[in-house]
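Subgroup meeting minutes
Present: P.N., E.W., G.H.
Scribe: E.W.

1. P.N. recapped why we're keeping a running log of single-chain structure predictions: easier to compare across weeks, and new members can see raw inputs and outputs side by side.
2. G.H. added today's entry (164 aa).
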Amino acid sequence: MTTTQRPVAEGLFTWPPAAAPLRLIGSECRVCGLVSFPAAATCVRCASDESKERLLADRGTLWTYTTQDFRPPSPPYDGPETFEPYSVGYVELPGELLVEARLTEPDPEKLRIGQAMRLTVVPYAVRDDGTEVVTFAFAPVEESTEIGESTEAEGSTEIEEEAS
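Output recorded in log:
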């Protein structure tokens, strides 16, 4: 039985979801304005080390996608031994960037480029101690009623602390 949940990695998305709306945590360069995900202390465009954390939009549009129909090699894959096909894609967050992410809809017939998508969390694995590891994903807006509902469709929120 699952007793607790934890994110697949710290600093990728806001956690726990009850504390704040679910958002990806990126960064923005204070010098050139480049938005990055995941958050980066140094800008890949201008090499500045002046970045600030930034909460990214929780909605976007599907830019492209593909399906993963076979279990990836381990390492680096560390998911469950029993494999179920899934979709991955790039979701365009308006005015920000493209984010590569898992998609909640595994059937390519139910996905289309330009489709409205919404950020959510999905189970990734269950550890031996019962801890459920969760990761972020994007769901077609029609099916997304999971954790992180908010009325904010676009825009970002800065986190005032410097990215380290």
